[in-house]
Specification:
heterotrimer; A alpha+beta; B mainly alpha; C alpha/beta; A: alpha+beta; B: about 85% helix
């Protein structure tokens, strides 16, 4: 028992360091709450320029790139596509813009917003999906009586009996094989909701990274190789079943490229996205009658690109604001805490020990901690080897290490440490 | 010798273990009936769709059962040992102290594992009866952090009990509560899928502190 | 003869409070050794150090030649230990606890335990927690006797016991000690029981040792003298001759290892007048109180 003590004391130190590095900063930030800048970027078809909505506890304010502020009414008038219902109510919806006549129906059809957060890309739900009837003659979409999986074959499990629908499974598997599908599927992307206007089934990445479009039309399988190159290394496909029917889906690649899969023979449209990191940033694609606005939101800023309907860049804007780290409490935090650990992170649904280093700001306190631990080791007459072990631990963990060291101080007069 | 030792540990926790087994049984029955009834009340597709969309963990109560069991077995196994310093009796036995502590903790953990296995088997059976295989697959990775957390809670109860100094007991209780809480964060299927190994390490690390605490107890009995 | 226990320069503190300093004594194999002292003088502390339940601040404590803090299992098997208050596993029954301990000791003598149990009017299936304090003490004693240890350590066996059970204890211990080379180390706060039982004793005072010697020698050489004094507020300093002094009205008692003549000379030298000077016979308890004082 005696000989293993130093190892155990290090184990306790590690646990204390973990405890303090999780709960210490957590508590600190509860006490020093930092409000993040919330700016929404828009592009005005009237002004042909960016407009910004700033929201905080006082409410919203509106400005343009030149710093001119607008009232709410002015803003709404400058953004007729976004606010067409409000403008209609006030009788202020223009008949035409740039001499192009506009109707509420057209505006509504062309408006869409697709937000893609990192957690959405990271999430891996249970690989079990309902395949709806895509060409139903019913008014609304309905859930099928079964769910499918694509393992060694495409299999339908009847929900009520929890048994495989052999007949349907065989039919669909055959259709997939005929189209050259390689089992098992690597990922399946769909939007299993009955609240969408229509159903386009699923985009499925097969065993050889090829993308297939699978749906059910009049009870029969529809399976199509999209011809999308496996070299793109898709990380996620987000189906977009919107009335506009210009594209089936948007997908993100490993290299942070963003593509639309157009409804025209699955042709790819690459979006002119810059400064995007799908693991950290939220991507928002907004469409209206005239433009596409692509916004990359990071913790401390944004990049926005506006294009015409042919995806040619019209303008770009970006902003960065001082993050939590640059505030007084933030600077104090990075000085105090050499690193922080959290087990939850906004950008992923998974729980893990997420480390975040504070960088050079923590160096002075790390060195001070080292000096303290050396002094402490000498005062306590700790022999050289364990002392070096403790000092190393402290120089790596700073304040946490000191807390851990003091917490285990009574364990010091251990027989393994002959004085 | 080992049998005799396990027998003693069993005598201490016999009633609380039986009590816990009943609690687990009731929880499992509730899970079974709730699932069975919901399938009777609603369309099967819709039920499954709800489970998938909202990641409803229909066996979530197993989480609390695992935590409760860890704490209770820890208390009932170690309170009699610390009360009147009975641990002295064990330490006086002609057995090496660390072997002794290991056997004690291993007995407690084995009982927890027995409850965990019982839970897993029953939920698996219920799951396979009503739901597709995918739910069963996600089950293990979903319940595992709770089981590890239950064992970790047990370890910290033991650590707190065997610590002779009251002040340090309070500190260890806080640390233990914080560490154990990490195993029970978040809802949904398989949220710990990527970190199970790390959490298992944290549990083992916590378990090793029992030796430190017990050693401290031996050193510090007044 | 060999020493079973050797204690050398033992010093211990609880926090900043000194319990004892440089405590040294040996226990010879085959002897019955008593550790006497008032409450709080460190009897249980010494026992805990001896059993390895406490690490002394300094000094050494050997049991069968091994450092008591890290005793080998083999040595622990040779030592029987009665915890203060006869603490045992109260959740076990009489037969369960016997079976439990039997597994650990190869020399286990089941009969010794059940012989003792047969004298108690309890059933085998009775739990210890449902027994009286006296009965529990017999269970604890029975377990130790069944273990058949070479060294028996008893921490305040008399705690909570009435005269009958105390006598029973001493009787069994006496019987046990008759066997070859069995050593007993005992502490008690009831001294009178030990008078004809102990071979040797050590008397602890707060922070120091008052005495270490064979009990016969102690009783033979330690004397009480009484005299009358006319001085109403007589005080006597302790010195090599006068070990202790007390006065009730005009009756004075002094305790000393010296003979009558030396005590008288000591008093005369201090200009203390006395009448009716005589020696008073003492029991072990009287001698203990004489040595340690009443307070």
């Amino acid at each position: 028992m005696v000989t293993t003590m130093p190892v155990l004391r290090i184990a306790l130190m590690m646990i204390i360091v973990l405890f303090v590095s999780i709960f210490g900063p957590d508590f600190y930030w509860k006490a020093n709450k930092h409000e993040n800048n919330k700016t929404n970027v828009n592009f005005s078809p009237i002004k042909k320029g960016f407009l910004f909505t700033h929201s905080d506890v006082r409410g919203s304010s509106y400005s343009d790139a030149q710093g001119k502020f607008y009232t709410r009414d002015e803003f709404e008038a400058l953004m007729p596509f976004l606010n067409f219902r409000q403008l209609m109510l006030a009788g202020k919806l223009p008949q035409s813009i740039d001499e192009i006549p506009i109707t509420p129906k057209e505006i509504n059809l062309n408006n869409f917003t697709q937000r893609i957060a990192p957690a959405l890309i990271q999430a891996k739900p249970l690989q079990l999906f309902p395949l709806m009837e895509s060409a139903s003659d019913r008014l609304r979409l309905e859930l099928p009586p079964d769910f499918f999986r694509i393992g060694r074959r495409m299999e339908f499990i009847t929900a009520l009996t929890n048994e495989v629908n052999e007949e349907k499974s065989v039919v669909f598997t055959k259709a997939l094989v005929a189209e050259g599908f390689t089992f098992p599927a690597k990922s399946i992307y769909g939007n299993p909701s009955t609240k969408k206007p229509f159903d386009e089934g699923y985009f499925v990445v097969d065993g050889k990274d090829r993308v297939f479009h699978i749906k059910m039309v009049k009870g029969a399988p529809y399976c199509k190789d999209t011809g999308i190159s496996p070299d793109l290394h898709i990380v996620s496909i987000i189906p977009m079943e919107i009335e506009l029917r210009e594209f089936y889906a948007v997908f993100i690649t490993q290299n942070n490229e963003v593509y639309f899969i157009s409804t025209d023979h699955y042709q790819l449209i690459r979006l002119p996205v810059e400064n995007y990191n799908h693991e950290e940033n939220t991507l928002t694609i907004k469409g209206d009658l005239f433009y596409r606005l692509i916004t990359i939101n990071a913790e401390n800023g944004y990049h926005a690109t506006v294009t015409d309907r042919k995806y040619a860049v019209i303008d770009r804007t970006s902003a960065a604001w001082p993050g939590r780290e640059t505030t007084i409490s933030g600077a104090a935090a990075s000085y105090l805490f050499p690193f922080t650990v959290s087990i939850e992170k906004e950008t992923t649904p998974y729980i893990q020990f997420y480390f975040k280093h504070s960088g050079v700001a923590s160096v002075p306190l790390l060195l001070a901690s080292l000096l303290f631990s050396i002094y402490y080791m000498r005062k306590k007459n700790v022999p050289v080897r364990p002392a070096m072990m403790y000092c190393t631990a402290v120089v790596l963990t700073g304040l946490y290490g000191i807390i851990a060291l003091l917490a285990i101080k009574d364990y010091d007069d251990d027989p393994a440490q002959k004085k | 010798m080992l049998i005799s030792f396990v027998m003693k540990e069993w005598l201490k926790v016999k009633w609380v273990f039986i009590g816990l087994a009943i609690v687990h049984g009731i929880i499992l029955l509730t899970i079974y009936y709730d699932l069975a009834n919901i399938f009777k009340a609603y369309k099967a597709t819709e039920v499954i769709m709800q489970l998938l969309t909202f990641e409803i963990v229909y066996y979530i109560n197993v989480k609390y059962a695992a935590l409760l069991s860890g704490v209770m077995i820890g208390i009932f196994q170690f309170f009699p040992e610390v009360n009147q310093s009975r641990l002295k009796l064990s330490f006086h036995l002609p057995v090496k102290e660390h072997v002794l502590i290991f056997q004690m903790a291993a007995t407690g953990i084995a009982l927890l594992v027995a409850l965990n296995v019982f839970d897993t088997i029953v939920i698996s059976m219920v799951t396979l009866k009503y739901l597709p295989y995918e739910f069963f697959e996600s089950l293990i990775v979903t319940v595992m952090p709770w089981y590890l957390g239950g064992i970790c809670a047990y370890c910290w109860v033991v650590i707190v009990f065997t610590e002779p100094n009251w002040m340090k007991r309070v500190v260890l209780l806080c640390i233990g509560a914080g560490i154990v809480s990490l195993f029970f964060v978040g809802d949904g299927y398989g949220k710990y899928a990527l970190s199970l190994r790390n959490f298992a390490t944290l549990m083992v690390l916590s378990g090793s502190i029992i030796f430190l605490s017990a050693y401290n107890f031996k050193r510090g009995i007044w | 003869m060999n020493n079973v226990v050797e204690i050398k320069n033992l010093t211990h503190y609880y926090g900043k409070r000194l319990i004892f300093e440089n405590l040294s004594f040996n226990i010879r194999e085959g002897s019955i050794f008593g550790l006497l002292g008032k409450n709080g003088t460190g009897k249980t502390t010494t026992i805990n150090i001896l059993n390895g339940f406490l690490r002394p601040k300094s000094g050494q404590c050997l049991m069968f030649g091994e450092d008591s803090y890290s005793l080998s299992p083999a040595t622990k098997a040779r030592v029987g230990f009665l915890i203060e208050g006869h603490v045992q596993y109260s959740f076990m029954t009489i037969s369960q606890i016997e079976k439990y301990y039997a597994a650990f000791y190869p020399k286990w003598k089941k009969e010794a335990y059940y012989e003792l149990m047969s004298k108690l009017s309890v059933a085998e299936g009775q739990k210890l927690s449902k027994m009286s304090c006296g009965q529990r003490s017999q269970v604890a004693l029975g377990l130790i006797l069944a273990q058949d240890p070479d060294l028996l350590i008893l921490d305040d066996y008399s705690m909570g016991l009435d005269a009958g059970y105390r006598r029973l204890f001493i009787d069994y211990l006496t019987e046990y000690a008759k066997a070859e080379n069995k050593t007993i180390f005992i502490t008690s706060h009831i001294i009178q029981d030990l008078e004809n039982f102990l071979d040797e004793c050590i008397v602890l005072d707060y922070r120091s040792v008052l005495l270490t010697m064979p009990i016969k020698e102690f009783l033979a050489t330690f004397k009480q003298f009484k005299f009358d004094s006319a001085h109403p507020h007589l005080t006597l300093e302790k010195d090599p001759v006068i070990k202790s002094f007390e006065m009730v009205k005009n009756k004075v008692s002094v305790y000393s290892f010296s003979n009558e003549e030396e005590v008288k000379n000591n008093l005369t030298a201090k200009n203390i007048a006395f009448t009716n000077f005589h020696q008073e016979p003492m029991s072990l308890e009287d001698a203990f109180i004489g040595l340690t004082g009443k307070y």
